Inverse folding.
C-alpha cells in the first residue's frame, strides 16, 4: 500500500470544516435555523467565510491542553509560595474583587451564547469558530475562578460572586450589558461582543487589568491573563472577520451593522468607565491613567481600524467625540459613585493620600486640581473627623447602562448630564445621548430594565432597610463593605506586614 | 414602540410602572453644583405629600452633612421640574403641581458651590 501523503494545513482545514452539513428535507431550513434572518442581515454565500487561523479541533485540543498544564503548575506554586504576600498592598485586591464579581460571570455568559451561535448560524465556517470561542470562554471562566480562589482564602468580598452578580446594584451594569447582547440575534451578538468589545475595546479591559496585576505583584491574575492571551487574539480576529464578512455579503447590511457599531461602542465604553476608576484610583502602583489608555488604545488604534473599515462605508462610532471630551473626568466621577456607596458594595474604597493626588494632578492637569482635589480633601477631612462621607439615599440610575447618573455634560464637567424620553405615559432617564438613542431605537427591550434602585423600592430585594438588602445580596456586613480604613482586611494586612518587618529585622 | 424581535408584535413589560410602587411614585431630586453627592437622589414618595415635606423631612437627613446645606437661602433657590422652570408651592401636594412618577426636580442654591467653588 502506498504511504498516504500528509495533509497540508489548508487542506486539513478544508476537509474538517467544510461540507459537513446538508440542505434539510424533513423540515424547512428556516425552522432548523430560526435565528439567523430576523435581524435583516442578508447572507448570499456562507462559504465566503475565511478563518485566518485555520484552526481545526484536533489542533485546538492539543494547544489548549498544553496551556492548561502550564497554568495549573503555576497555580500550585502560587498556593505553595503564599503569593498573597507578594502584592503591593491589600487595597490592590479590590480590583480583583471587581474582576471576579463583574467580569468572570460574563466569560461564562459568553461561553453559553457562543455555543448558541455555534448551533444557529447556517454557515459551517463561522459555526466552528464560534464553537471554539465557546470552549475558550468556559476555560477563561474556570481559570479565573481557580486562580482567584487563592485570594478568596484570605480576603473579603469574593465568596459569593455568582449570587452577587445577579443581585448587587453595581453588578447590574455588566450583567445588563451582556443580557442585552445575548437577547439580540446572532449577528448583533457577534458585532457586539466579538467586534465592538473583543476587537475595538478589549485592550482597555485586559491591558489595564493584566499590567495592573503585573505591576502590583499579582501573579495569579497575570497567570490566567497570559493563558488567555492567544485565545484573545483569535477572538479579536473573529470579531474583525465577522464584520467584514457581513459587509461583503450585501450592501443592505451596512446601515444595520453601522447602527450596531454605534450602539455597542457606546455600551462598551460606558462599561469600561469602571475600569477607568480602577486604573486611576485602585492600583497602589499605577500603570497609566485612563486618559492615556484611551488615547493609546482607542484614539490611535481605533482610529486606524475605522480608517481601514472606511472602504466598506463604515464610519467611526457615533459619540466617540463625547468619549474624547469625557476622558479627563469619568474615572473621577465613577470613583465618586463608589466612595458614596461603599457601604453597599462588596469591595472597599478609601481616602486618597497626597502622593496619589500629585499623580492624579499630573495626569489630569486640566481637571484634577480645580474639580476633584477639593472634593477628595473634603471627604478626607470628614473621615479624619470621624464623619466618613456615605451617601445614604439611593441614586438615580440610567435606564440603559444602569450606572448611577454621575456623568456630566459633554461641554460642562460641573453639571450632570440629564437626558430623558417619554413613552406610553412613562418617563425614562439616561446619562447621555448615547444611552438615550439606544433606548429610543428599541424601547420594547429597555422598558424591561431591572434597575436595582427601583427594584429595592418595589420591595423585591429582601426588605426595606439597607441591611435587609445587603443580606439579600449575601454581603458579609462589616467585612465585605465599608471603607478600607478599619476593615478586617486592613487589620490582617497590617499584621502580615508587621510580621515581615520583624522577620527582616531579625536577619 | 419598536424592537428587533423574532416574534412579530413582541411586547416588553414595563417594570417601573407606578402601580408597582405600593401607592408611591418615584421622584428624583438633585442639588446642583454639589457633586460630592455623585448623582441625583431617588425617593418613593406619596403623591399627596405636600411639597414642603421634601424640604423639611425628605432631604435634610441625606444632604445635611454637607457644610453648604445650612447656608442655603431657600427664598433664592431656583428650581426646574422635568427641564422647565418651576416655582414649588410648599403647601400643595406633589400631584397637584404636576410632579409625576419619575419626575426630576433640580435646584440651584446661589452662591454655594462646595469647597473652593469646585462644585463638590
Amino acid at each position: 500500500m502506498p504511504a498516504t501523503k500528509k495533509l497540508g494545513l489548508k487542506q486539513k482545514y478544508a476537509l474538517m470544516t467544510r461540507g459537513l452539513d446538508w440542505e434539510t428535507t424533513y423540515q424547512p431550513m428556516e425552522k432548523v435555523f430560526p435565528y439567523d434572518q430576523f435581524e435583516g442581515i442578508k447572507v448570499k454565500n456562507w462559504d465566503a467565510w475565511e478563518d485566518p487561523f485555520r484552526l481545526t479541533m484536533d489542533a485546538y485540543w492539543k494547544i489548549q491542553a498544553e496551556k492548561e498544564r502550564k497554568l495549573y503548575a503555576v497555580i500550585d506554586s502560587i498556593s505553595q509560595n503564599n503569593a498573597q504576600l507578594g502584592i503591593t498592598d491589600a487595597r490592590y485586591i479590590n480590583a480583583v474583587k471587581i474582576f471576579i464579581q463583574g467580569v468572570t460571570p460574563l466569560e461564562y455568559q459568553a461561553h453559553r451564547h457562543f455555543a448558541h451561535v455555534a448551533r444557529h448560524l447556517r454557515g459551517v465556517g463561522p459555526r466552528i469558530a464560534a464553537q471554539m470561542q465557546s470552549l475558550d470562554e468556559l476555560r477563561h471562566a474556570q481559570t479565573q475562578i481557580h486562580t482567584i480562589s487563592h485570594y478568596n482564602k484570605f480576603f473579603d468580598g469574593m465568596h459569593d460572586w455568582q449570587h452577587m452578580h445577579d443581585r448587587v446594584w453595581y453588578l447590574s451594569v455588566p450583567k445588563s450589558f451582556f443580557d442585552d447582547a445575548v437577547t439580540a440575534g446572532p449577528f448583533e451578538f457577534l458585532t457586539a461582543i466579538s467586534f465592538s468589545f473583543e476587537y475595538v475595546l478589549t485592550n482597555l479591559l485586559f491591558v489595564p487589568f493584566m499590567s495592573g496585576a503585573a505591576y502590583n505583584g499579582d501573579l495569579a491574575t497575570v497567570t490566567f491573563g497570559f493563558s488567555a492571551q492567544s485565545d484573545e487574539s483569535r477572538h479579536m480576529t473573529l470579531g474583525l472577520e465577522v464584520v467584514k464578512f457581513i459587509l461583503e455579503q450585501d450592501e443592505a447590511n451596512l446601515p444595520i451593522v453601522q447602527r450596531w457599531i454605534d450602539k455597542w461602542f457606546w455600551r462598551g465604553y460606558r462599561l469600561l468607565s469602571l475600569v477607568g476608576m480602577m486604573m486611576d484610583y485602585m492600583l497602589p502602583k499605577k500603570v497609566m491613567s485612563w486618559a492615556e489608555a484611551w488615547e493609546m488604545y482607542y484614539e490611535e488604534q481605533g482610529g486606524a481600524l475605522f480608517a481601514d473599515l472606511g472602504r466598506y462605508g463604515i464610519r467611526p462610532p457615533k459619540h466617540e467625540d463625547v468619549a474624547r471630551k469625557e476622558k479627563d473626568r469619568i474615572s473621577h466621577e465613577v470613583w465618586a459613585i463608589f466612595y458614596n456607596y461603599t457601604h453597599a458594595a462588596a469591595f472597599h474604597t478609601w481616602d486618597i493620600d497626597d502622593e496619589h493626588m500629585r499623580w492624579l494632578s499630573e495626569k489630569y492637569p486640566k481637571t484634577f486640581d480645580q474639580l476633584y482635589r477639593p472634593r477628595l480633601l473634603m471627604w478626607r477631612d470628614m473621615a479624619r473627623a470621624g464623619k466618613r462621607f456615605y451617601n445614604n439615599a439611593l441614586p438615580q440610575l440610567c435606564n440603559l447602562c444602569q450606572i448611577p447618573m454621575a456623568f456630566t455634560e459633554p461641554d460642562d464637567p460641573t453639571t450632570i448630564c440629564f437626558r430623558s424620553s417619554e413613552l406610553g405615559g412613562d418617563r425614562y432617564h439616561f446619562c447621555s445621548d448615547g444611552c438615550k438613542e439606544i433606548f429610543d431605537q428599541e424601547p420594547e427591550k429597555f422598558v424591561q430594565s431591572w434597575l436595582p434602585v427601583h427594584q429595592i423600592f418595589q420591595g423585591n430585594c429582601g426588605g426595606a432597610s439597607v441591611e435587609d438588602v445587603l443580606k439579600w445580596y449575601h454581603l458579609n456586613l462589616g467585612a465585605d463593605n465599608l471603607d478600607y480604613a478599619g476593615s478586617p482586611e486592613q487589620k490582617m494586612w497590617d499584621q502580615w506586614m508587621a510580621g515581615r518587618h520583624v522577620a527582616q529585622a531579625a536577619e | 414602540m419598536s424592537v428587533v424581535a423574532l416574534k412579530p408584535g413582541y411586547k416588553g413589560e414595563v417594570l417601573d410602572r407606578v402601580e408597582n410602587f405600593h401607592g408611591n411614585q418615584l421622584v428624583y431630586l438633585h442639588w446642583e453644583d454639589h457633586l460630592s453627592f455623585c448623582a441625583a437622589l431617588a425617593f418613593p414618595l406619596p403623591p399627596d405629600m405636600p411639597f414642603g415635606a421634601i424640604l423639611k423631612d425628605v432631604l435634610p437627613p441625606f444632604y445635611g452633612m454637607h457644610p453648604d446645606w445650612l447656608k442655603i437661602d431657600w427664598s433664592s433657590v431656583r428650581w426646574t421640574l422635568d427641564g422647565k422652570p418651576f416655582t414649588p408651592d410648599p403647601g400643595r401636594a406633589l400631584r397637584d403641581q404636576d410632579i409625576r412618577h419619575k419626575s426630576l426636580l433640580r435646584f440651584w442654591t446661589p452662591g454655594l458651590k462646595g469647597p473652593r467653588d469646585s462644585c463638590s
About this structure: Chain B has a mean pLDDT of 97. The two ends of chain B are 39 Å apart (CA to CA). Chain B has one domain: 22-117. Residues 64 and 70 of chain B are 7 Å apart (CA to CA).
